[in-house]
Amino acid sequence: MEGYDVVTVDDNKIGKVVGESGMFLIVEQGALMKSKHPLPREFAHVDDSEQQVRVTVPKEIFADSPKVDDDFDEQAAAEYYGLAPSPGPGTEGYGVSDAGDPSRSSEEQAARQGLEPAEEERARIREGDGQSGLPESSPALLGDRLDGIDERDQERS
Question: Which carries the bigger pLDDT value, residue 111 or residue 148?
């Protein structure tokens, strides 16, 4: 694959493949001021008959990617292209989650705020506690649109 032209899907030539490193192709870009950039193999589609690599990454994204030098950081390149998980929230001390840790469940957060857990609320409503927040009767649901007025009598007038 070395020496293959690298072309975007909209036919912009962005360089030539000059090497490989792990999950990346190394692409040299530029005529006078040459620079090397990583290109994830997942975004590259090789056409051996035309000695060409088509990429699904826009030219601008590729050009702004980290440069490849002697100490190429594959992890940083993977993070740039969105292929590596970013570090999660920090912890305090010996693995104790801090207050803003998103790994807390909604039930745990509700309990910390003194709210009734959803399961208990549903059980209380099923048992007929009467504090469901719904009106005792709903004339509209029972057929009468106006409480105390029979609509059938209204139609006959």
Answer: 111
